[in-house]
What does this fold into?
Amino acid sequence: ASAEKGGYEHFMIKEIHEQPKAIKDTMTSRIMMDVDEVKLDDIKLTKEDLESISKIYIVACGTAYHAGIVGKYVIERLAKIPVEVDVASEFRYRNPLINKNTLMIVVSQSGETADTLAALRLAKEHGARVIAITNVVGSSVAREADDVLYTWAGPEIAVASTKAYVTQLIAMYIIALYLGRLNGNLSIEEFRLIRDEMLKLPEKAEYLLNQKETIQKFAATHYVHKDMFYIGRGLDFAVALEGALKIKEISYIHAEAYAAGELKHGPIALIDKGVPVIALATQEELFEKMLSNIKEVVARGAHVISFAFEGNDDISKVSDAVVYLPKTLSILAPVLSVIPLQLLAYYTAVERGCDVDKPRNLAKSVTVE
Ligand code: G6P
It folds into this structure.
Protein backbone atom coordinates (compact mmCIF):
# COMPACT_ATOMS: atom_id res chain seq x y z
CA ALA A 1 0.00 0.00 0.00
CA SER A 2 2.87 2.34 0.75
CA ALA A 3 4.27 1.68 -2.73
CA GLU A 4 0.98 2.79 -4.28
CA LYS A 5 1.31 5.95 -2.25
CA GLY A 6 4.78 6.57 -3.64
CA GLY A 7 6.30 6.59 -0.17
CA TYR A 8 3.77 9.07 1.21
CA GLU A 9 1.68 8.29 4.26
CA HIS A 10 -1.64 9.06 2.56
CA PHE A 11 -2.97 9.46 -0.96
CA MET A 12 -4.03 12.99 -0.14
CA ILE A 13 -0.51 14.23 0.59
CA LYS A 14 0.79 12.35 -2.44
CA GLU A 15 -1.83 14.04 -4.61
CA ILE A 16 -1.07 17.45 -3.10
CA HIS A 17 2.54 16.93 -4.21
CA GLU A 18 1.47 15.90 -7.70
CA GLN A 19 -0.07 19.32 -8.32
CA PRO A 20 2.85 20.97 -10.13
CA LYS A 21 2.77 18.15 -12.67
CA ALA A 22 -1.04 18.15 -12.89
CA ILE A 23 -1.04 21.91 -13.58
CA LYS A 24 1.61 21.49 -16.25
CA ASP A 25 -0.10 18.54 -17.92
CA THR A 26 -3.41 20.38 -18.09
CA MET A 27 -1.76 23.31 -19.89
CA THR A 28 0.26 21.14 -22.26
CA SER A 29 -0.49 21.65 -25.95
CA ARG A 30 -3.16 24.24 -25.03
CA ILE A 31 -1.08 27.11 -23.73
CA MET A 32 2.43 27.39 -25.02
CA MET A 33 5.32 29.79 -24.79
CA ASP A 34 5.34 32.30 -27.66
CA VAL A 35 2.08 30.96 -29.10
CA ASP A 36 -0.42 33.81 -29.26
CA GLU A 37 -3.57 31.73 -28.96
CA VAL A 38 -5.13 29.01 -26.86
CA LYS A 39 -5.15 25.74 -28.76
CA LEU A 40 -8.35 23.92 -27.99
CA ASP A 41 -8.76 21.26 -30.61
CA ASP A 42 -11.22 19.53 -28.31
CA ILE A 43 -13.65 22.47 -28.34
CA LYS A 44 -15.69 23.15 -31.45
CA LEU A 45 -17.37 26.38 -30.32
CA THR A 46 -16.90 28.95 -33.09
CA LYS A 47 -16.81 32.72 -33.09
CA GLU A 48 -20.35 32.75 -34.53
CA ASP A 49 -21.58 30.35 -31.83
CA LEU A 50 -20.08 32.61 -29.20
CA GLU A 51 -21.78 35.70 -30.62
CA SER A 52 -25.16 34.16 -29.83
CA ILE A 53 -24.24 33.36 -26.22
CA SER A 54 -25.75 35.85 -23.80
CA LYS A 55 -25.08 34.03 -20.58
CA ILE A 56 -22.96 31.29 -19.05
CA TYR A 57 -23.98 28.98 -16.24
CA ILE A 58 -21.29 27.09 -14.37
CA VAL A 59 -22.81 24.15 -12.55
CA ALA A 60 -21.10 21.63 -10.27
CA CYS A 61 -20.98 20.12 -6.76
CA GLY A 62 -18.50 20.28 -3.90
CA THR A 63 -14.96 21.22 -4.77
CA ALA A 64 -15.82 21.49 -8.46
CA TYR A 65 -18.40 24.14 -7.53
CA HIS A 66 -15.65 26.13 -5.84
CA ALA A 67 -13.60 25.96 -9.03
CA GLY A 68 -16.72 27.32 -10.71
CA ILE A 69 -16.75 30.38 -8.46
CA VAL A 70 -13.20 31.18 -9.55
CA GLY A 71 -14.37 30.55 -13.12
CA LYS A 72 -17.08 33.19 -12.80
CA TYR A 73 -14.64 35.89 -11.71
CA VAL A 74 -12.15 34.97 -14.39
CA ILE A 75 -14.53 34.56 -17.35
CA GLU A 76 -16.35 37.79 -16.51
CA ARG A 77 -13.03 39.61 -16.20
CA LEU A 78 -11.39 38.29 -19.38
CA ALA A 79 -14.28 37.52 -21.73
CA LYS A 80 -16.86 40.00 -20.35
CA ILE A 81 -19.72 37.50 -20.55
CA PRO A 82 -22.12 37.33 -17.58
CA VAL A 83 -21.67 34.12 -15.59
CA GLU A 84 -23.85 32.56 -12.93
CA VAL A 85 -22.54 29.75 -10.74
CA ASP A 86 -24.81 27.23 -9.14
CA VAL A 87 -24.62 23.98 -7.23
CA ALA A 88 -26.15 21.31 -9.42
CA SER A 89 -28.74 20.18 -6.85
CA GLU A 90 -30.13 23.72 -6.71
CA PHE A 91 -29.85 24.48 -10.39
CA ARG A 92 -31.84 21.48 -11.52
CA TYR A 93 -34.85 22.28 -9.33
CA ARG A 94 -35.13 26.03 -9.69
CA ASN A 95 -36.44 26.33 -13.25
CA PRO A 96 -33.33 28.11 -14.50
CA LEU A 97 -33.69 30.32 -17.55
CA ILE A 98 -32.02 28.28 -20.24
CA ASN A 99 -32.30 28.53 -24.00
CA LYS A 100 -30.18 28.18 -27.10
CA ASN A 101 -28.28 31.34 -26.17
CA THR A 102 -27.06 29.75 -22.97
CA LEU A 103 -23.65 28.20 -22.57
CA MET A 104 -23.31 25.79 -19.70
CA ILE A 105 -20.01 24.71 -18.23
CA VAL A 106 -20.30 21.66 -16.01
CA VAL A 107 -17.38 20.76 -13.81
CA SER A 108 -16.97 17.26 -12.41
CA GLN A 109 -13.81 15.41 -11.48
CA SER A 110 -15.46 12.01 -11.80
CA GLY A 111 -17.92 12.97 -14.53
CA GLU A 112 -20.50 10.81 -12.73
CA THR A 113 -22.05 13.01 -10.04
CA ALA A 114 -25.81 12.44 -10.25
CA ASP A 115 -26.93 16.05 -9.75
CA THR A 116 -24.33 17.45 -12.15
CA LEU A 117 -25.34 14.98 -14.82
CA ALA A 118 -29.03 15.78 -14.31
CA ALA A 119 -28.28 19.52 -14.59
CA LEU A 120 -26.41 18.89 -17.84
CA ARG A 121 -29.35 16.93 -19.26
CA LEU A 122 -31.78 19.66 -18.25
CA ALA A 123 -29.67 22.29 -20.00
CA LYS A 124 -29.43 20.21 -23.16
CA GLU A 125 -33.20 19.62 -23.21
CA HIS A 126 -33.65 23.39 -23.26
CA GLY A 127 -31.23 23.83 -26.13
CA ALA A 128 -28.13 25.02 -24.29
CA ARG A 129 -24.65 24.23 -25.46
CA VAL A 130 -22.62 22.35 -22.85
CA ILE A 131 -18.89 22.26 -22.22
CA ALA A 132 -17.73 19.69 -19.68
CA ILE A 133 -14.61 20.00 -17.58
CA THR A 134 -13.83 16.53 -16.28
CA ASN A 135 -10.92 14.37 -15.26
CA VAL A 136 -12.29 11.02 -16.45
CA VAL A 137 -12.09 10.16 -20.11
CA GLY A 138 -15.34 8.71 -21.40
CA SER A 139 -17.29 9.53 -18.22
CA SER A 140 -21.04 10.19 -18.48
CA VAL A 141 -20.57 13.95 -18.35
CA ALA A 142 -17.89 13.76 -21.05
CA ARG A 143 -20.09 11.65 -23.31
CA GLU A 144 -23.17 13.83 -23.01
CA ALA A 145 -21.63 17.29 -23.31
CA ASP A 146 -21.13 19.01 -26.67
CA ASP A 147 -17.51 19.76 -25.91
CA VAL A 148 -15.08 18.39 -23.35
CA LEU A 149 -12.05 19.94 -21.79
CA TYR A 150 -10.18 17.25 -19.94
CA THR A 151 -8.19 18.04 -16.85
CA TRP A 152 -5.05 15.93 -16.76
CA ALA A 153 -4.76 15.41 -13.02
CA GLY A 154 -4.40 11.64 -13.24
CA PRO A 155 -6.45 9.36 -10.99
CA GLU A 156 -7.43 11.00 -7.71
CA ILE A 157 -7.91 8.48 -4.89
CA ALA A 158 -8.29 10.56 -1.71
CA VAL A 159 -11.91 11.54 -1.11
CA ALA A 160 -10.93 15.16 -0.50
CA SER A 161 -10.12 16.64 -3.89
CA THR A 162 -6.83 18.49 -4.33
CA LYS A 163 -5.08 18.03 -7.65
CA ALA A 164 -8.39 17.78 -9.50
CA TYR A 165 -9.35 21.20 -8.11
CA VAL A 166 -6.19 22.98 -9.27
CA THR A 167 -6.54 21.49 -12.73
CA GLN A 168 -10.17 22.65 -12.81
CA LEU A 169 -8.86 26.14 -12.09
CA ILE A 170 -6.40 25.82 -14.96
CA ALA A 171 -9.25 24.67 -17.21
CA MET A 172 -11.22 27.79 -16.21
CA TYR A 173 -8.32 30.09 -17.10
CA ILE A 174 -7.91 28.28 -20.40
CA ILE A 175 -11.61 28.70 -21.24
CA ALA A 176 -11.61 32.35 -20.14
CA LEU A 177 -8.57 33.14 -22.28
CA TYR A 178 -10.08 31.25 -25.19
CA LEU A 179 -13.45 33.01 -24.99
CA GLY A 180 -11.85 36.40 -24.40
CA ARG A 181 -9.71 36.08 -27.50
CA LEU A 182 -12.55 34.62 -29.56
CA ASN A 183 -14.95 37.50 -28.81
CA GLY A 184 -12.23 40.13 -28.88
CA ASN A 185 -12.63 41.30 -25.29
CA LEU A 186 -9.14 40.26 -24.25
CA SER A 187 -6.23 42.17 -25.73
CA ILE A 188 -3.24 40.27 -27.04
CA GLU A 189 -1.00 42.05 -24.51
CA GLU A 190 -3.08 40.89 -21.59
CA PHE A 191 -3.34 37.42 -23.06
CA ARG A 192 0.45 37.19 -23.28
CA LEU A 193 0.92 38.43 -19.75
CA ILE A 194 -1.45 35.84 -18.31
CA ARG A 195 -0.11 33.05 -20.54
CA ASP A 196 3.48 33.71 -19.49
CA GLU A 197 2.55 33.78 -15.81
CA MET A 198 0.49 30.61 -16.12
CA LEU A 199 3.44 28.77 -17.56
CA LYS A 200 5.43 29.64 -14.43
CA LEU A 201 2.81 28.22 -12.04
CA PRO A 202 4.12 24.63 -11.85
CA GLU A 203 7.50 25.85 -10.65
CA LYS A 204 5.92 28.22 -8.11
CA ALA A 205 3.62 25.49 -6.80
CA GLU A 206 6.67 23.26 -6.33
CA TYR A 207 8.41 25.99 -4.38
CA LEU A 208 5.37 26.40 -2.10
CA LEU A 209 5.26 22.69 -1.36
CA ASN A 210 8.69 23.08 0.16
CA GLN A 211 7.48 25.78 2.57
CA LYS A 212 5.50 23.58 4.92
CA GLU A 213 6.92 24.51 8.35
CA THR A 214 4.65 27.49 9.10
CA ILE A 215 1.59 25.43 8.20
CA GLN A 216 2.66 22.41 10.20
CA LYS A 217 3.31 24.58 13.21
CA PHE A 218 -0.06 26.32 12.97
CA ALA A 219 -1.80 22.94 12.60
CA ALA A 220 0.06 21.50 15.60
CA THR A 221 -1.01 24.45 17.77
CA HIS A 222 -4.61 24.83 16.60
CA TYR A 223 -5.86 21.33 15.79
CA VAL A 224 -7.82 21.21 19.06
CA HIS A 225 -10.24 23.98 18.09
CA LYS A 226 -13.89 23.37 17.31
CA ASP A 227 -14.36 26.26 14.91
CA MET A 228 -12.28 28.03 12.29
CA PHE A 229 -12.99 31.00 10.06
CA TYR A 230 -11.65 31.51 6.57
CA ILE A 231 -11.84 35.03 5.21
CA GLY A 232 -10.96 36.68 1.92
CA ARG A 233 -12.22 39.09 -0.72
CA GLY A 234 -12.74 38.53 -4.44
CA LEU A 235 -10.90 35.46 -5.66
CA ASP A 236 -9.58 34.94 -2.15
CA PHE A 237 -13.14 34.39 -0.98
CA ALA A 238 -13.56 31.61 -3.55
CA VAL A 239 -10.38 29.97 -2.24
CA ALA A 240 -11.52 30.47 1.36
CA LEU A 241 -14.61 28.40 0.57
CA GLU A 242 -12.45 25.58 -0.73
CA GLY A 243 -10.04 25.80 2.24
CA ALA A 244 -12.94 25.58 4.70
CA LEU A 245 -14.43 22.63 2.84
CA LYS A 246 -11.10 20.77 3.00
CA ILE A 247 -10.81 21.14 6.75
CA LYS A 248 -14.46 20.15 7.33
CA GLU A 249 -14.13 17.07 5.15
CA ILE A 250 -11.04 15.55 6.69
CA SER A 251 -10.57 16.98 10.18
CA TYR A 252 -14.26 17.40 11.16
CA ILE A 253 -13.60 20.90 12.45
CA HIS A 254 -16.48 23.27 11.87
CA ALA A 255 -15.16 25.82 9.42
CA GLU A 256 -16.87 28.76 7.82
CA ALA A 257 -15.69 30.81 4.90
CA TYR A 258 -16.82 34.40 4.77
CA ALA A 259 -16.33 37.22 2.33
CA ALA A 260 -14.27 39.44 4.62
CA GLY A 261 -16.53 42.43 4.02
CA GLU A 262 -19.40 40.43 5.51
CA LEU A 263 -17.63 39.86 8.85
CA LYS A 264 -19.51 42.72 10.43
CA HIS A 265 -22.81 41.23 9.36
CA GLY A 266 -22.61 38.22 11.63
CA PRO A 267 -19.51 36.11 12.03
CA ILE A 268 -17.55 38.70 13.99
CA ALA A 269 -19.92 37.93 16.87
CA LEU A 270 -18.32 34.48 17.02
CA ILE A 271 -14.72 35.69 17.16
CA ASP A 272 -13.37 35.19 20.64
CA LYS A 273 -9.99 34.63 22.29
CA GLY A 274 -7.93 32.00 20.48
CA VAL A 275 -10.31 31.35 17.56
CA PRO A 276 -8.23 30.49 14.49
CA VAL A 277 -8.78 32.78 11.51
CA ILE A 278 -7.30 31.94 8.15
CA ALA A 279 -6.95 35.15 6.17
CA LEU A 280 -6.21 35.30 2.46
CA ALA A 281 -4.81 38.57 1.17
CA THR A 282 -3.52 37.98 -2.34
CA GLN A 283 -5.72 40.41 -4.23
CA GLU A 284 -3.65 43.52 -4.68
CA GLU A 285 -6.45 46.06 -4.95
CA LEU A 286 -8.12 44.62 -1.84
CA PHE A 287 -5.00 44.22 0.28
CA GLU A 288 -5.55 47.26 2.52
CA LYS A 289 -9.17 46.24 3.11
CA MET A 290 -8.01 42.79 4.18
CA LEU A 291 -5.49 44.32 6.57
CA SER A 292 -8.33 46.18 8.30
CA ASN A 293 -10.41 43.00 8.48
CA ILE A 294 -7.50 41.13 10.04
CA LYS A 295 -7.06 43.90 12.61
CA GLU A 296 -10.75 43.63 13.49
CA VAL A 297 -10.50 39.94 14.34
CA VAL A 298 -7.14 40.32 16.09
CA ALA A 299 -8.69 42.98 18.32
CA ARG A 300 -11.14 40.30 19.48
CA GLY A 301 -8.44 37.78 20.28
CA ALA A 302 -8.32 35.69 17.08
CA HIS A 303 -5.17 33.80 16.15
CA VAL A 304 -4.52 34.69 12.55
CA ILE A 305 -2.55 32.90 9.89
CA SER A 306 -2.34 34.99 6.74
CA PHE A 307 -1.52 34.23 3.13
CA ALA A 308 -0.05 36.97 0.98
CA PHE A 309 2.44 37.49 -1.80
CA GLU A 310 6.10 37.96 -1.03
CA GLY A 311 6.88 41.60 -0.44
CA ASN A 312 3.71 42.35 1.51
CA ASP A 313 5.56 42.41 4.82
CA ASP A 314 3.02 44.67 6.52
CA ILE A 315 0.82 41.69 7.04
CA SER A 316 3.24 40.11 9.50
CA LYS A 317 2.56 42.97 11.94
CA VAL A 318 -1.08 41.95 12.28
CA SER A 319 -0.79 38.16 11.98
CA ASP A 320 0.46 35.39 14.25
CA ALA A 321 1.86 33.54 11.25
CA VAL A 322 2.26 34.37 7.56
CA VAL A 323 2.75 32.14 4.55
CA TYR A 324 4.29 34.09 1.68
CA LEU A 325 3.38 32.98 -1.81
CA PRO A 326 5.71 33.44 -4.76
CA LYS A 327 4.52 36.45 -6.74
CA THR A 328 2.14 35.95 -9.61
CA LEU A 329 -0.80 37.87 -11.07
CA SER A 330 -3.67 38.39 -8.60
CA ILE A 331 -5.99 36.65 -11.02
CA LEU A 332 -3.87 33.48 -10.86
CA ALA A 333 -3.43 33.53 -7.08
CA PRO A 334 -6.00 30.77 -6.36
CA VAL A 335 -3.78 28.14 -7.98
CA LEU A 336 -1.07 28.89 -5.42
CA SER A 337 -3.02 29.98 -2.35
CA VAL A 338 -5.09 26.81 -2.20
CA ILE A 339 -1.97 24.66 -1.73
CA PRO A 340 -1.11 25.79 1.81
CA LEU A 341 -4.82 25.51 2.71
CA GLN A 342 -4.82 21.88 1.55
CA LEU A 343 -1.70 21.32 3.64
CA LEU A 344 -3.32 22.99 6.64
CA ALA A 345 -6.32 20.66 6.37
CA TYR A 346 -4.04 17.67 5.92
CA TYR A 347 -1.75 18.35 8.87
CA THR A 348 -4.69 19.27 11.10
CA ALA A 349 -6.44 15.99 10.25
CA VAL A 350 -3.24 14.05 10.91
CA GLU A 351 -2.83 15.77 14.30
CA ARG A 352 -6.39 14.79 15.15
CA GLY A 353 -5.79 11.18 14.15
CA CYS A 354 -8.46 11.23 11.42
CA ASP A 355 -8.73 8.81 8.53
CA VAL A 356 -7.45 11.34 6.00
CA ASP A 357 -8.11 9.46 2.77
CA LYS A 358 -11.51 8.07 3.75
CA PRO A 359 -13.33 10.57 5.91
CA ARG A 360 -16.50 9.42 7.64
CA ASN A 361 -19.81 9.74 5.78
CA LEU A 362 -18.22 10.96 2.53
CA ALA A 363 -17.82 9.27 -0.83
CA LYS A 364 -15.43 10.06 -3.65
CA SER A 365 -18.24 10.17 -6.14
CA VAL A 366 -21.92 10.77 -5.35
CA THR A 367 -23.76 8.88 -8.07
CA VAL A 368 -27.15 8.80 -6.35
CA GLU A 369 -29.15 11.86 -5.44
C1 G6P B 1 -18.03 14.36 -3.62
C2 G6P B 1 -16.54 14.35 -3.35
C3 G6P B 1 -15.97 15.75 -3.54
C4 G6P B 1 -16.32 16.29 -4.92
C5 G6P B 1 -17.82 16.22 -5.20
C6 G6P B 1 -18.13 16.47 -6.66
O1 G6P B 1 -18.66 15.11 -2.62
O2 G6P B 1 -16.27 13.88 -2.05
O3 G6P B 1 -14.56 15.72 -3.39
O4 G6P B 1 -15.89 17.60 -5.03
O5 G6P B 1 -18.32 14.92 -4.90
O6 G6P B 1 -17.55 15.44 -7.41
P1 G6P B 1 -17.24 15.53 -8.94
O7 G6P B 1 -16.68 14.18 -9.30
O8 G6P B 1 -18.54 15.82 -9.64
O9 G6P B 1 -16.26 16.61 -9.14
